[in-house]
Amino acid sequence: MPLDNQIAAVLQGFSAQGEPDYATLDACQYRLYADNLMPPLPGAGMAEVRDIEVGGAQGMLAARLYRPLARDGLPLLVFFHGGGFVIGNLDTHDNLCRTLALQTGAVVVSVAYRLAPQARFPAAPHDCYAATRWLVEHAQGLGVDAGRLAVAGDSAGGNLAIAVCRLAREQGGPAIRHQCLFYPVTDAACASASYAQFAEGYLLSRAMMGWFWGQYLAHPQHAEDPLASPLRDDNLQGLPATTLLSAEYDPLRDEGEAFAERLQAAGVSVRLQRCDGMVHGFISLAPFVDAAAQALQGAAADLRRALG
Predict the structure, then answer these.
(1) Is 280 designated active site?
(2) Catalytic annotation on 4?
(3) Catalytic residue among 81, 93, 126, 280, which?
(4) Average pLDDT in the 92-118 region?
């Protein structure tokens, strides 16, 4: 399918900026630039939005709670933002989290896990798992029903959502009903056919992903660890039901779809949707891309059903 017309207009706006020189790129400077690339978008109104702190693997982490309705006992959706494990923050994904809260009816808590290269793998997955456990342990004080728990994330955040589910399976909880993965990172190899087909020109490039992995992994052998590359996990049984959205024009398309197929082969219930005409990051473009908004509504409906 051709590029979606609204997506093509977005790409045109970004094309003039070009890519940085990854050989000399400083992560802190790039983070400052990338996290302020788009102006904040007005988000859906919530009954409550507040910044909190949650327990991470090595100390407290910033987080933001979104309560769509003014009552206790709502389900809990823990969200992990994308950004190649290097960029992104609570503000870059504020609009998306508001929309997820509104459309799922769940309290969404977005977690600001530690970023690379200041905190390399496995800091981020351990932070995300510790934060999820902390939220469950403090559910009563937060006014949420931790018995109805799901996780979600986009890109690198999808990778971390998978890691949380895997750690929860291995360490005896908490029980997670559903994982919602938007174009997740699943393999450090960066060698699939979609990487070659969409190497540049579609917001996320092969060179950018290579740089992200270089910042994230302290040692090359970490690429084999299923917490970093869940596609290489030889045991996907027992993971929660999954919604996985891939984008047609995305270097990560094939590895995400391959992960969905591996889950299905392991007996996990999966809804895989390839979003035609879309590029990496399209879910964050939902406020001004109609097809992205429709895909987000479908994913939110899956979460709403799973959380009952």
Answers:
(1) yes
(2) no
(3) 280
(4) 98
